[in-house]
Amino acid sequence: MQGDPKIDERLGLNVPRETWPTPPLLKAYEAAGFAWVQVHTPPIAMLADRERARQHARALRAALDTTGLRLLIHGPDDLSAGTELHDRAFGGLLDYAAEARAELIVYHGLNFRSAEDAPSARALADRVELEEASLRRRATVAQRLGVRLCVENLAPVYPGPPRVCHDPAAVSALVRRIAMPSVAMLFDVGHGHIAAALRRDDLPSLLAPVLGDVGLFHLHDNLGARRHDVQAPGVDPLRLDLHLPLGAGTLPWIRVAATLRDHDAPLMLEIGAGVRQEPLVLGRSARAAFGEARASVPA
């Protein structure tokens, strides 16, 4: 499938969380022109049982070996380095990556509620310090394995209190403090759109300062902060993090597409199970979105 080489070799599609990536499904991704696939790992308890984690990873690798797709794995959403159980699970996550021959690991770092007063600020600083120290140790192992940890900026799924990970600058600062090539930032463009809207800011302004730390992009659309009761047919009336196909929401795609195209990090479509189309349609629409953005730029 011909297209833009700057996009084709970097474009990927997620496997929905509750779906097992069978060989026919993965072959459909490859036939649609995707180069990468994202697969969720088992939960924390299974990763902490490292032999079970390896067993699961070997089954995933067997399915992937029917294709030429490159793999990134998404760790558990609630994994938070710096405690005994979670550090043991993180070890299992790295084992999983090695067995499955993943190149990238998605991790939700700084997933702590923002401080509201001096005592909570001190507690938050202590918890962040524990996470950072743990990540440094995991980064050393990741470097030896040849895998990269990608720390993701998040956004509220529904309206709620802010969390540290909702600020891309905070995630970027964590990556810079660790300062190891095996740790990068995952800039989630859909989450950035929500964060910018909640702050009455601008998505390109959130992206530009962190661009040099990015090793992976997540691409999906939504309706921003949904101020003034913004609605759309067929979607949850309150949810912010909708994971819609590109163009189905209000993300200012034209203003960020050129920046994404000119980068070299993989571009992973992360589309929700209830709103996704066939892989071929998703691939074509993503390429068309990049093409339309290029065409709109004055010569």
Structure notes:
Strand 5, helix 7 and strand 6 (183-188) form a beta-alpha-beta unit. The chain has an eight-stranded parallel barrel, surrounded by six helices. It is 44% helix and 13% strand. It has a single domain (5-296), classed as Divalent-metal-dependent TIM barrel enzymes (TIM Barrel, Alpha-Beta Barrel). With 299 residues, the protein is α/β, with parallel strands linked by helices.
List the helices and strands and how they pair.
Elements: H1 5-8, E1 11-14, H2 23-31, E2 36-40, H3 44-48, H4 50-64, E3 70-74, H5 84-100, E4 104-107, H6 118-145, E5 148-152, H7 168-178, E6 183-188, H8 189-198, H9 203-207, E7 214-219, H10 253-262, E8 267-269, H11 279-296
Parallel strand pairs: 1-2, 1-8, 2-3, 3-4, 4-5, 5-6, 6-7, 7-8
Helix pairs in contact: 4-5, 5-6, 10-11
Pfam family, one: AP_endonuc_2
InterPro entries: IolE/XylAMocC-like, Xyl_isomerase-like_sf, Xyl_isomerase-like_TIM-brl
Domain Xylose isomerase-like TIM barrel: 27-272
Class by alpha and beta content = alpha/beta
Number of strands: 8
Mean pLDDT: 96
**CATH class bucket:** Alpha Beta
Output the helix-strand order.
Answer: HEHEHHEHEHEHEHHEHEH
- Gross morphology is globular
- CATH topology (level 3) name: TIM Barrel
Overall radius of gyration = 19 Å
Q: Looking across the biggest beta sheet, what order are the strands in?
A: 1-2-3-4-5-6-7-8
Portion in strands: 5-15%
CATH superfamily: Divalent-metal-dependent TIM barrel enzymes
CATH architecture classification: Alpha-Beta Barrel
Task: Looking at this protein, list some descriptive labels.
299 residues; alpha/beta; TIM Barrel; eight-stranded parallel barrel; globular
